[in-house]
Amino acid sequence: MDLSRASFVREAPDVRRQALIDATARCLAERGIAGTSVRAICATAGVSSGLLTHYFDGIDALIVATYRDFGRRVGEAIDSAVLAAGPDPRDRLESYVLASFVPPVLDPDMLAAWSAFWSLVKSSPAMAKAHEETYAEYRRGIGTHIAALSPSMDENTVRLATIGIAALVDGLWLELCLDSRTFTIAEAQQLARDGISVWVDRH
Predict the structure, then answer these.
(1) How far apart are the C-alpha atoms of 67 and 39, rounded to whole Å?
(2) How many angstroms separate the CA atoms of 144 and 155, rounded?
(3) How far is residue 176's CA from residue 106's CA, in Å, rounded to a whole number?
(4) What is the pTM of this model?
């Protein structure tokens, strides 16, 4: 993800808002949640603290917006992978799943930011809602592609297959970010393909 510092001089409001989100992502990635403050974000963005409160109802709202922005970027990357896969349902399902193991979705430098988001899910209703909606959209995509590949599969089996594949991807993604020496990206992709086969081909 391009999290480079943006200039605010005579920029449109939506550009300023996005630049604050990008600065928050950088702070979370570099400092974690404990080091991410209004002062740190504004210093990273090169703006006064008043601009942050102009666009957001405080730092908590900005962090939630940053999480949603992460989800948007991940979704766009996955959609692009599926579009490039062509019309075959199997290829489209695999592309949707395997997109998590290549940049920009696989980005070990952003693990601290993701960890900060997850740490707030239990304590922040707004973050919990954002997390629920973001992951529901991701799982819905998996389920849609499974149903297209196996139209005779009943609804509950599609649901369970979706949960199983999503959990496998999450675990592999996390371990790759924590320690890429454990297994290679190619091995993670093969494990994900194997997971698809277990859940889809047997039905």
Answers:
(1) 19
(2) 11
(3) 8
(4) 0.87
